[in-house]
Structure formats: C-alpha cells, structure tokens
Amino acid sequence: MSAPVPARRACVIGWxxxxxxxxxxxxxxxxxxxxxxxxxxxxxxPGDLAGFIERLGSFGYVxxxxxxxxxxxxxxxxxxxDDMTKRxxxxxxxxxxxxxxxxxxxxxxxxxxxxxxxLPEWRGEGTDVVVLGAGGAARAIVAGLLGEGVxxxxxxxxxxxxxxxxxxxxxxxxxxxxWPQIADLLTRCxxxxxxxxxxxxxxxALPIDLDGLPTGAAVADxxxxxxxxxxxxxxxxxGHPVVDGLGMLLHQAVPGFEVWFGVRPxxxxxxxxxxxxxxxx
Length: 281
Fold this sequence. Notes:
- By secondary structure, this protein is an alpha/beta fold.
- The chain folds into two domains: 124 residues, Leucine Dehydrogenase, chain A, domain 1 (Rossmann fold), CATH 3.40.50.10860; 138 residues, Rossmann fold, CATH 3.40.50.720.
- 36% of the residues lie in helices and 19% in strands.
- Strands 8-7-6-9-10-11 form a six-stranded parallel beta sheet. A five-stranded mixed beta sheet has the order 2-1-3-4-5.
- Helix 5 crosses helix 6 and helix 5 crosses helix 10.
- The longest helix is centred in the middle third of the chain and has 12 residues.
- It is globular and about 60 Å long.
- It starts with 7 loop residues before the first strand and ends with a helix.
C-alpha cells in the first residue's frame, strides 16, 4: 500500500500580516474544489525574511504569497524567469519546484484581469493612462498596462523624484508630472488609476477634482477598504465606468493557487460576496 500524499500547505507572509484576506480567498477555493490542503498566515519580520524563505519547504509549505513590506526584498532571494516580474522587480508569489524556490509577480495580471472583467471592451492600443502614485503597486500596474499595448502612461506622484525614477525605469512610453499638474492631464486621459493609499480607511482623502475628465474615461482605484472610495463615488456620479480594488486582489490570487494546488480557480460572484462581507471586520 502506498503512503498517503500529504496535504499541500501554503501561506501569506508579511509584517504585519493579520489584515490579509488571502486565507479567506484560498480557503474558499480549497473547499469549493474539494482539495486537501491549507492556507495560513506567517508574520515574518524583515530581519527574519531571508531565513524564513530559505527554510520554506522545511516548514511544510509548497509556496507562499508575499505582501508588504517584503515584495522587493524577496525578488533578490529567489529565481525569477518571466519577463513581467523582471520588469516589476518585485515578487508576490513563491513556489517550490524540484527543490528550487521560484518566484513571480501576479499583481500586474490581477489588475488587468479585473479591468477586462469589468470593461470587456477595453483595449490598450491608443489608450492614454494617468497613474497616481509611484510605489510598488504603481510599478506592477504600469508594467501590466504596457504589456497590453497602452500608448502612453503619465505618473503623478507627490514625491516628484520617485515619480521620475519610476518613469525612467520603464522608458519613453512613461512620463511623469508634478502632483499639481494632474488637472491638466485629465483632459486627454482614457484611464485614471489611483495606486496610492489616499482615500483608504484611516488615510487622508485623495485631493482630486475630475472636472475635465472625458466622459468615456474609466476610473480605477486599487483601494478596497472602503470598497467605493470617494474617487470612485465621484467618478460614478459623473457617469464614468469605475473599477474597484477588490477585483485586483481576487484575480492576483489565481496564478498562485494554480501552482500550489494544481487547479486554476475562478473568480466568481460568490467569492467576491464572501470577501466583501469580510471587509468591515
């Protein structure tokens, strides 16, 4: 008689990590697809990161998600093979394969997949995008949009030097302007994306006026607490298509679940409702 195959285990690591909704997402999929496995949280301090990653398999894990503040640090600790992750220079998903620890970034995929699910007619070609913010999320979203053939991306960041550095990283298709110039950009914008924490619960409001934004322009916000930010509320009142931040969270989880548990899961209304119900807790 052959020995039983042990249940596969994955987790999310971060510092702190108690806020992560990833266990709810992956736990739902494990139950839905009848897979013997588990997904938990591991609080890993920055000083312990390299040691934890090195011993990931010995802890019984087949892989993990990586959340703040570790994504950029992990990029230098694992093997990366895909061009998108190399452009982003940050990793949010790890998996063991043949004794090797591999990593990739699914944030760009998550943003674009959700954008397309909400706006199925959206096309990157000929599109002019304005991105607010220049942090790790902005880097992933800019990479994802460039991969979709977007013509031009302009970054507005409160710290101008950081915005210029991000634009320089991606080359001629990406430009940057000072934060006060946002209003001038909106008149030619097809897609406005907020990647900052402004507007998140407990954070300052996002100081922006959408006057001048073309009627058909879409507005996206990666913040998902609250689910409808002031930016999205203002955009919806003006008749703009809006894309909230929760869908990106759900879609970015798909590739990791597939490599760990062998099933490509679906993002369904039932899953979304489950996570929505958890946002106020």
